[in-house]
Write a structure and sequence with these properties.
The chain has about 550 residues and is α+β, with helices and mostly antiparallel strands. The chain has 4 domains: about 35-110, Immunoglobulin-like, CATH 2.60.40; about 115-190, Immunoglobulin-like (Sandwich), CATH 2.60.40.10; about 200-315, Immunoglobulin-like (Sandwich), CATH 2.60.40; about 320-530, 3-Layer(aba) Sandwich (Aminopeptidase). Helix content is about 20%, strand content about 35%. Strands 14, 15, 16, 17, 18, 19, 20, 21, 22 and 23 form a 10-stranded antiparallel β-sheet that branches. It has a 7-stranded mixed β-sheet with strand order 25-24-26-30-27-28-29, sandwiched between helices. Helix 3 crosses helix 5 (about 480-490). The chain starts with a helix and ends in a 9-residue tail after the last helix.
């Protein structure tokens, strides 16, 4: 009985299961065979357009029950304004299954066009040393930003006190962040190499047209209009009793040239006289186109004085007053080369102060042309450009210093430039250069990574041409930089410019300054100079 009951239950269970499966299958059939909707965007879901560009809809695909109903789709792109930067939506709608189905495409209208910059005035502007550079400005036009012209930034490191080629960079960023740059070159050319252009018109008829120190005296060149066929220069003490006569060579009817030896004169103050047919004429400062100042002439120190109308010079026993004269380049309102991290004037000072202290540890006497961020010591006529007054002071004290140098640091918009440069006087002799080569050899060693731009060179003042000095060559032309040129011309002093590094970018700065490599370069210099003075080098503590 129990077995029969069990059998019935099983049959009922199987039948119900079959019925349930049947219902499920019917439902599934209806579900699968009902109208199907395919609704999708053609093209990108997010479209980017340039401002003012026309919006062309890439289209949409709509299929219901295998039938293409794309043309029934309502496209609404009324929200898109391509004249205005922004993010917009295009909405696609279709009715399906008694409901509205919707798709959205995002349209981004962007401004990717950079402003156009045009220079006012020439691409290259030439300014004479000491004159003012007048900024002509620049124009900016942009496709979208109407106020772009007000956003021009001008980066200008032109220093008309220092001869050289500079760049003025104009940069503008429009409202949408598009950047443009344009560059102008400013060439600061040397003043006409005539020391007295401001009083040329006052000159008298007897002129000294050239004067330079030689080892034991002065080379002199000039003319006397009223001469008697022979030319004579007389050097006398102020009482006009102790006179020395120098016969000059005749160049032509009016011109003479020759040397006057001064190193064997007794100490004292002297006047110079030029002999003419009718009279002897005391040399007036207005007669001198070329005002040499002071120099070591063998064992004598000879200093010319232009304080009064008549030129005098003082002969005295020579003695060095300093072992080292350091000119920390630039200062005051002249920051020197600029870079992202530090003003050159500041770096030059840091390095110079370090070197001063180190020389003093060796018992040496050091003079610095400045000890702070001011422009420091200057000399000469008040109307001169600052750089000339600085060069003059450098020569004046350089005469009584065994070693004279200027510390500088380079910077360039061309950030691929790196390494050191040493700029020497064009006329420097081989003995002097041998010390410089020792320093350059040591610098090359210290520089083991950033060596692409290492060089010892000099420049032609008239053409700006750079000449390598690596071959021990001598060039007899005038120096490019006032701090090299004037100390040599007016004081017989050989100065040298050390450009320890290019510091155009952060990588340079980190290698050089943060990692203390500047101290290594200083030590190379200190070791060489200390040894040149015959002193044993002491390592830094
Ligand atoms: Zn400099």
């Amino acid at each position: 009985m129990k077995k029969v009951l069990n059998k019935k239950i099983i049959i009922i269970f199987i039948v119900s299961l079959a019925l349930m499966l049947l219902v499920a299958s019917i439902l599934l059939y209806f579900f699968l065979t009902r109208d199907k909707l395919v609704f999708k965007l053609i093209g990108e879901e997010v479209l980017t357009l340039d401002v003012y560009e026309q919006y062309n809809d890439p289209g949409i695909q709509a299929i219901i029950d295998k039938e293409d109903v794309s043309s029934d789709v309502i496209v609404d792109y009324s929200l898109v304004d391509t004249n205005k930067v922004g993010t917009y939506e295009v909405i696609y709608k279709i009715n399906y299954d008694k409901k509205e189905v919707q798709l959205v495409r995002t349209v981004k209208v962007v401004d990717s066009e950079s402003p156009v910059l045009t220079l006012k005035g020439n691409e290259e502007i030439v300014v004479e040393e000491g004159n003012v550079y007048q900024e002509p400005g620049c124009n900016a036009v942009d496709n979208y930003d109407p106020k772009v012209n007000d956003k021009i930034q001008i980066i200008n490191h032109v220093n008309t006190n220092v001869v050289g080629v500079y760049e003025v960079v104009y940069t503008v960023v429009d409202d949408s962040g598009n950047k443009s740059s344009i560059t102008r070159q400013v060439v600061v050319k040397p003043k006409d190499d005539n020391e007295i252009d401001d009083y040329t018109s006052l000159m008298s008829s007897n002129q000294i047209t050239n004067m330079s120190f030689i080892d034991d005296g002065v080379y002199i060149e000039g003319y006397v209009k009223d001469n008697n066929g022979s030319f004579k220069i007389k050097v006398c003490k102020d009482n006009k009793k102790d006179c020395v006569n120098y016969d000059m060579n005749k160049k032509d009817d009016y011109y003479y040239y020759g040397n006057i030896k001064l190193s064997n004169l007794d100490n004292g103050t002297y006047y110079m006289w030029i002999e003419s047919k009718t009279a002897e004429k005391v040399v007036n400062k207005l007669d001198m186109q070329y005002r040499i100042v002071r120099a070591k002439l063998n064992d004598k120190l000879v200093t010319f004085n232009y304080d009064n109308d008549n030129v005098t010079f003082i002969v005295d026993d020579f003695a060095y007053q300093y072992d080292i004269l350091i000119d920390p380049g630039h200062g005051g309102s002249d920051p020197g080369a600029s870079n992202e991290t530090i003003d050159e004037k500041q770096l030059n000072l840091i390095q110079s102060l370090y070197e001063k202290e180190r020389y003093e540890e060796h018992g040496l006497k050091v003079l610095m042309l400045r000890n702070d961020l001011t422009y420091g010591m200057t000399m000469g006529e008040s109307t001169w450009p600052a750089v000339r007054k600085k060069a003059y002071a450098l020569g004046f004290y350089g005469v009584v210093s065994k070693i004279t140098y200027s510390n500088h640091h380079n910077s360039s918009l061309d950030t691929t430039l790196s390494g050191w440069e040493i700029i020497v006087p064009a006329t420097s002799n081989k003995e002097y250069l041998s010390t410089i080569y020792k320093i350059s050899d040591r610098w090359t060693n210290t520089y083991n990574t950033l060596e692409e731009h290492t060089r010892v060179y000099t420049r032609n003042y008239n053409t700006g041409t750079i000449f390598s000095k690596e071959n021990n060559d001598l060039y007899y032309f005038t120096d490019y930089y006032a701090v090299l040129r004037l100390p040599y011309q007016l004081f017989n002093v050989n100065n040298v410019l050390f450009e320890g590094s290019y510091l155009s970018n952060k990588a340079d700065f980190e290698w050089y300054y943060t990692n203390n490599n500047w101290k290594k370069l200083s030590e190379d210099k200190i070791r060489t100079y200390v040894e040149a003075l015959g002193i044993e080098y002491i390592e830094p503590k």
